[in-house]
Amino acid sequence: MAGAAAVAIGKKILKSPKTRDLAVKGLAQGMKLHHEAKENFQNMKDEASDICNDAKAEAGLDK
Questions:
Q1: Cβ–Cβ under 8 Å, residues 19 and 13
Q2: pTM score, two decimals?
Q3: What is the dihedral of CA 26, 32, 36, 39, to 10 degrees?
Q4: Can you tell which superkingdom this protein's organism belongs to (predicted)?
Q5: At what angle do helices 2-15 and 17-59 cross, to 10 degrees?
Q6: Sequence-separated (6 or more) residues with CB below 8 Å from residue 62
């Protein structure tokens, strides 16, 4: 009986608008952080490439 009651309560909690709202907000925050991390990584790659190209040009190796 206790197991069935726990399942019933769990279903109500999962279907709760408040639980859904918290889950959506948490997922949205995670997605935002992931997107920002990808942008920052791309910016670092671009900056490193620029530095490398500038160094090649200064060394006369860009021909």
A1: yes
A2: 0.64
A3: 140
A4: Bacteria
A5: 60
A6: 53, 56
Give the residue extent of every domain in the chain.
21-63
pLDDT in tens, 2-23: 677 777 777 777 788 888 899 9
Q: Which residue has the tokens 């900056």?
A: 47
Tell me, letter by letter, the H, E, C secondary structure of the chain: CHHHHHHHHHHHHHHCHHHHHHHHHHHHHHHHHHHHHHHHHHHHHHHHHHHHHHHHHHHCCCC
